Amino acid sequence: MRARNTMANANDRIIAVVLTALELEYHAVREYLTDLKVWAHTAGTLFETGTVRGADVRVALAVTGEGNQASAVVTERASAAFAPEVVLVVGVAGALHADIDLGDVVVATRIYGYHGGKEDRTGFHARPRAWDAPHHLEQHARYLTRTAWWDRLLPEYPGRPFKIHLRPVLAGEVVLDSRASPLAQLVRRHYNDAAAVEMESAGASLAARLNRSLPLLTVRGISDRADGNKAASDLTGWQSVAASRAAAFALALVVGIESAARTGTDRAAAVGPGSWAVERAEDAVGGTASGHRVQSVSAIPRPTTWQRHAFVDHDRLFGVGQLVDDVSASIISRTGHAVVSLFGEGGIGKTALAHDAVVRSTAENVFSRIAWATAAQTGGALDLIPAGGGTAYWLDVVKDLANQLNFDLGLSRALWTKHFGLRMDSLGPDERVLAVIDNIETIEDASSVIRSLHEMGVDRPHKLIVTTRWQLLPALPAVTEYRLRPLEDISAVALIRHLGAADPDLRSADERALRPILDVTDGNPFLIKLVVRHFLSSHLPLDRLLNEFRQLGGLDDERRSLAGRLRSHLYLRSLRELERRFGAESVMALMSSFCVKGKGDMFTYDELSAVSGLANSELFSKVLTGACQLSLVTAFGDSSTPGKLDRAYTIHGLLYEFTCGQSSGRREGDGS
Fold first, then answer.
1. Is the Cα dihedral 452, 453, 455, 460 positive or negative?
2. Whole-structure pTM value
3. Could you tell me which of 354, 155, 366, 114 has the C-alpha nearest to residue 245?
4. Alpha helix (H) ranges present in 551-641?
5. Which neighbouring-strand residues pair with 63?
6. Within 13 Å and on the Cβ side, how many CA atoms surround 556?
7. Residue 103 DSSP label
8. Smallest Cα–Cα separation from 449: which of 434, 462, 436?
9. Could you report the per-residue pLDDT of 90-138, keeping only the tens digit for each?
């Protein structure tokens, strides 16, 4: 197994390196990345590292220039610098067969280095080299072509639906743009199975092979037919279309592969909507069981710009019809509050409901511009709070909104918020903006975001929708708020049957047979989806699968049930962020203090300070403030300062069990 790199820290680990030959190809990949940073190799090669939009997956990107030699050199440098899990050669290519059209995507099952050979008086004798695609990469690619969910990431483009082909690709040293030349005849004679031709993958494949067989895959969009009309095809814009499609497919593949690795399995069922789409929006509801629903790419309607940022994978909602109506009415209203908040536990369906409410609102044609941004970040909730002119992450959110709203903010990041406000002020009297900020982690973040966007002009008649796990009222009074609750049994059963429509056991099961699933998931749509999909992909008998879930600790012990484990993960992530800021010892001193009393009991500020044993009062205050901001600790009373004597502090009952049940041992999920 290859050693995984660490970069600056675990969150910066580079999963894949994407190599392109042309600037146009580079920018096509770059459009799907956020949090971009420049990384310079000692030999001068510049890489950009970034996070795939909506996924906790980081990649490195570089331009190799044209030709196999250049791509080999950069592949070697990328391998040494990042030790990635996979290298992807992404860009455009020319088609070699009539059944491959402009705009189609070709995933190389084999790379032919076709320019090797011997020339004597009897003619040319081909001596090619060939590299087969790694089996696991090819399998992930084949699965991705069947699910087709990744297609909704693409920009709209009029014309014929396109196809994905998994076939061999030629990599030579010249641009082939003729069907009648001697080289074209040689290709037809010796490499008749090749679907496309390009100039970089042979060099990259050789370098990857020499680096302990580093997995490498080539993904190419077809921009010409290699028939003498390349210039005309390029002028009509096919290079941009082909490059964008290849980039989207390649990055979706990376996210799927990493998702499979994180779940500890390489099963194909781990790829697709259950990886990128669900990880980006754990609140998505409904959907169709991966592995049982096969669609052509053209079957998915192309979304508008904001929908490509929403990242939901459901095809219908259950049990929330009236709530969607109510939220839509609040969004459309010109007289209500400018802010609409959807709150509820993780996985309850906030993102999906917000998406459907916005879709329904657009039917009324009351908004001229719509934008959707996701706030949740691995780096921690506090990174979102605008301060001192704006953090880097907050400015990325502003830029994301601006791009969708077609606002030009200029080159100076320091002026982005100001320019955003100016663009809002310049809108015509009949224009209305609808902005969505999804997955805000804390009340403090929500307050800061709402205040900042208000100052930037997002106020009546415009609308702001936020989704969060926390209730904002009464802390933020100027908000119309809706709470999402777990599904009632009748709706949960309908969702289970919908997800398992292709399986006779689930499709026809009565409520009594499905009761164990209802008990395990506690009406949480995301957990229902996980259980059903695991059942469909594992092919285990339903009773055996449910028994495995019970072995996690028993249904009566919520901390160790499946639902409890998911919630524990959310708490663990917040605890680690707090430890990163203040140290594990200080955080443990604070959190374990709550174990002195019973679940639900409260502490005054002085009581908590004394029990924690933190002699440094300033440090204690900072740790407690951070814990409140991360929603690990709940404070009641005057919020003007954490040191008020009339304030009381407690932690959620589930967090109490998580903390106090393991205070003397290793945390669940902690690798220490």
1. negative
2. 0.44
3. 155
4. 562-582, 584-593, 605-612, 617-629
5. 20
6. 0
7. T
8. 436
9. 999 998 888 888 889 999 999 998 776 677 777 767 777 889 999 999 9
Distance CA 170, CA 176 (A): 10
Task: Count Cα neighbours of 200 within 13 Å in the Cβ-side half-sphere.
Answer: 28
Rg (CA), the chain: 27
What lies within 8 Å, CB to CB, of 581 at 6+ separation is: 380, 382, 626
Closest CA to 302 of 405, 165, 153: 153
Nearest to 261 by CA among 110, 109, 84, 90: 84
Task: Please tell me the CATH code under which domain 306-483 is placed.
Answer: 3.40.50.300
Half-sphere exposure of 65 toward its Cβ, with a 13 Å CA cutoff? 7
**Cα→Cα distances 297→154, 160, 220, 502, 653, Å:** 11, 11, 16, 20, 46
Q: Which CATH architecture has domain 10-262?
A: 3-Layer(aba) Sandwich (3.40)
Identify the architecture of domain 563-660 in CATH: Orthogonal Bundle (1.10)
Q: Is 167 exposed, middle or buried (0-12, 13-18, 19+ CB in 10 A)?
A: middle
| pLDDT 10s digits, 280-331 | 222 333 333 333 222 233 333 334 578 767 766 566 788 888 999 999 999 9
Q: Which amino acid makes up residue 36?
A: L
Q: Helix, strand, coil shares of the chain as percentages rounded to 5?
A: 45, 15, 40
What is the rounded CA–CA span in Å between residue 202 and residue 209?
Answer: 10
- The closest of 564, 468, 569 to 521, measured between CA atoms, is 564
Single-letter code of the amino acid located at 331: I
- Give Dmax (Cα) for the chain: 98
